[in-house]
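To whoever is on call:

I kicked off a structure prediction for a single chain this morning and the downstream step that reads the tokens threw a length-mismatch warning. I double-checked the sequence; it's 255 residues and nothing unusual in it as far as I can see. Pasting both halves so you can look.
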Amino acid sequence: MPEPIRHPTGIIGGGGGSSGAAWVVASTLDWSAEPAVDLKVAGSLVDANGDTWTAANGGNASTLGTDGATGLRIVVSSNCGIAVNTCPEVSTGLAGLVSGVANDDEVYVLLRVTHPTASGNSRLGPSLRVSGANMHAGAWYVASPGRLEWGGVSNASQYADPSTATPGDTDQVVGVRYTSGAYQIYTHGAWSGTWPTDPSSGTFVIGDGESSGNPKTATTILLASASLVLLGLRGAAPNPDLTIIAHRILHRASA
């Protein structure tokens, strides 16, 4: 049984947690195989699976788009905020990526990524968003002590950044497990050539509400109506240079 998602109000089932249902592959996209598209100009792209990704806040990036070789590249050029939706991003409806997803289900977003090694304060990761509310999790480069750490934001100005260094910065896999009310981050280490089949093959790092000294209030992101957002954040110069090589989404139904 995967580790339960924790929340300040207690452990939540999050859908699927008690059903015994198996994780299944909902969708996979190799961003490095996508043709080069400058999303600061084009505004959107249709990927190889037929899903439309819409770009936003390109003015806060010097690069936002696919480069036809390494993946989806985001170079953030201005300070921005996740909670106020000003970070350069691409997004698409989760229901289009996960057929039949229901609010009581679970989704596991796996990113094969290259993180920054020498950026100011920057974050790369996925968000689920509904009506301006966000649940975001990823790797956060902290200028002091000068390393990448794991963290997330589930509500305006509510961050969780534990003092746990990431295992690396080049071609690694990180997974974020979402329900409608919480998230968990897992690291799967360097890309091995095959995708993980469920969260239990990774190392659990942190979940919403588990940061010391900064408890969260409840956030509800209904999965059936959520958008999946891939974004970069800059909290301080220099500019983070972030690349998403590929992603895979797993789905576990509640019943």
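Update from on-call: the warning came from a stale cache, not from the record. Cleared it. Sanity check on the structure: The chain has two helices and 19 strands.
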